[in-house]
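Office hours follow-up: a student asked to see two folded examples consecutively, so here they are.
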Amino acid sequence: MRFMFVGDSMTIGRAGDYTWRHRMWQHLDAAPDGPHRIVGPRHELYDTAADAAVSHAYADPRFPGHARRHLAGWGEGWQHMAPVIGDAVAAHRPDVLLVSLGLIDLGFYTDADQTAANVRAFVAAARAAGPALRMVLLPVIPNSRAEEDAPFAAEVARFNELLAKIVADLTTDASPILLAARPEAYDIHRDTYDGTHPNASGEHRLAGEFAAVLHQAWGIAGPYRPARDT
């Protein structure tokens, strides 16, 4: 089975990170129902000094190159991914998209309704390239801006409601869409390094939410068991 990670800065990660993609690859790689492959057009991390995605300095140098693949970008959201997802699906032929987007959209580009429209455009473009594609979408998770800015928090809550409706409206037997749980135990003071971007414990929590949906709904890969950092 072929998986593609789609996301923003929390998914691409920065130089020196493990990334939740790495945690998820470890989970899939150890699963007895494999082989599972990670696919996508990109493989870099974001380099803060260069202000560009040019780094290959993952925290685990043994993270194999083929498993570093993704479609994620620092500062990119649903509106950026909707125009490119079709080509990425056509070129890399994923069976499952694991998608974590929305915070950057609401923070800088679009309101909840506009962001929801971009989600629908994303789904349509992805399915046009892969009619049997499965998708797991993560709601916008806790973050420092939502904790400090009540109007923004309300916009996040509205978008998450719209996202749940989109999943209910658009899922089909041929191309199912699932909504991952918004991690209730996620603590921005413990699970992030800056109130938004996940640290090691946050990476495991995000990977664990995706893993739980895959296992519970589709019987893929088994329960999440965090691998130790070495």
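And the second, which I mentioned at the end of office hours:
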Amino acid sequence: MISNTGILRVFGGFIAEVTVREQHVDDLTITTHPVERGAPITDHAFKMPAQLTIEAGWSAAGAYSQANSLTAGAKPKSNFQKLTDAYNQILPIVGAVGGPSAVGKLSTAYNTIALGNALSSQSSTQNLNDLYGQIAPVIDEFSPEASATLAGIVATIAATQDQQTGIEDGAKPLRDLYEKLLQLQSSAELISVQTGKRAYDNMLIRSIRTQTDQTSENILMITAQLQEVLLVETVQSSMPATAKRADPAASGGVTQKGTKSAVSYSGPIPTYA
């Protein structure tokens, strides 16, 4: 799974919370007919439009932020953001008691849960309890008192986390964002795309696919296929006025048709009815 940390991945103005896969395809069409030796090869091969497949996803909170114009303070927090907030709050306690070893184990647990569960059907509280469950035994080894303090902090965070979404209907933001993506596709508007490897201009969304099952009921995962539109410039020329074309023999240009010679004819004279 690819996280969106470090590299800004933008898909037609939408920023996915998690990008799972980016597939780039660049093809060159080459003639299968024989080519005369010495002929320009560029006359017999041409570049095809670039194609891109993106698999990306949003939680309900992330979709809500994308589908609505919100100020920073009004944006609901995603499961990923809430897990990160909790991690930052318990990190000093873990570091003070368990030292670098405990911090390392906490960091490993956080990375695993953040990437694996932040876009799953688990709530932010479940993600937090998973994180605490992996680090609590480590803290118990050093200080049961610190472990009890940590448990109280985790319980307080868990009690308030699920109230921070600001979303009454968790499925509605997902439907709204999905509708906006479909509208962008049907508008046939050229978009720009930034991936981890390359930036694209002049792309159209050829297809958008999504699937809902027991693991994706509370998230929006899409697979979008995009194709480049090759833009060219044409040259416009003007024709002479109609009057100048009245006598093409007189107004037309000189054309070289080779040397001509007269041949004598002794046959019958043709007649016309």
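Two things to take away from it. The beta strands are 2-3, 10-11, 18-25, 28-30, 45-47, 51-59, 191-194, 199-210, 219-228. The chain has two domains: 2-30+43-70+169-228, 77-161.
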